From TrEMBL:
Residues 166-175 have a biased composition (Basic and acidic residues). It is found in: Mitochondrion inner membrane. One of its GO terms (cellular component) is mitochondrial inner membrane. This is ATP synthase subunit d, mitochondrial. Belongs to the ATPase d subunit family. InterPro entries: ATP_synth_F0_dsu_mt (IPR008689), ATP_synth_F0_dsu_sf_mt (IPR036228). Pfam families: Mt_ATP-synt_D. One of its GO terms (biological process) is proton motive force-driven ATP synthesis. The lineage of its organism: Eukaryota, Metazoa, Ecdysozoa, Arthropoda, Hexapoda. Gene3D superfamilies: 6.10.280.70. Keywords: CF(0), Hydrogen ion transport, Ion transport, Membrane, Mitochondrion, Mitochondrion inner membrane, Transport.
Length: 175
């Protein structure tokens, strides 16, 4: 019995690192229960105590009674509980692992895109050295374009003739 418990011992420190802060109290309570169970199991010997049947055969006057008890005692096998949850836990872990791998792939793709954007920004001229034409070439959607997209001063979106406030869009459509 002690061998089986030693084989399935839990690395509590590694487990505690992965538990979210709001679950720490539950983990501590679970560890206390587990340690109490382990102490109770280890307090008992791994095998049932041996019985000296010959002493009982001499002192019990009823014939066959001790032999009957001996057969029953030796036939008694207390089953160790079968592990029914490991398969479910492994299946859950494989699902979680797929999600983790997918997240890592997506994150790596995002990293590549962001590094590309950083490289593009680093390749630009510093703003204090840019002319208006350089700014227009770098950011065509933000630069002023008086020929193709004329605007009124102060050239803010809300100061233009065809401006629609996105927050009050539904209110204005009722008029």
């Amino acid at each position: 019995m002690a061998k089986r418990i030693a084989q399935s011992s839990v690395n509590w420190a590694a487990l505690a690192e992965r538990v979210p802060a709001e679950q720490k109290a539950h983990l501590a309570a679970f560890k206390i229960k587990s340690d109490g169970y382990l102490r109770r199991v280890l307090a008992n010997p791994p095998e049932p105590p041996a019985i000296n049947w010959s002493v009982y055969k001499q002192s019990v006057p009823i014939p066959g009674m001790v032999d009957n008890f001996q057969k029953q005692y030796e036939a008694l096998k207390i089953p160790y509980p079968t592990d029914t949850m490991s398969a479910q836990v492994d299946a859950q872990w494989s699902e979680v692992k797929k999600a983790i791998d997918q997240f890592v792939q997506q994150s790596n793709a995002n990293i590549v895109n962001f590094e590309k954007q950083v490289a593009e920004i680093k390749a630009l001229l510093p703003y204090d050295q840019m002319t208006m034409e350089d700014f227009r070439d770098a950011y065509p959607e933000q630069a002023l374009d008086p020929i193709n997209r004329p605007t009124y001063w102060p050239h803010n979106p809300e100061d233009q003739v065809d401006y629609v406030d996105p927050e009050n869009k539904a209110v204005e459509s009722h008029h």
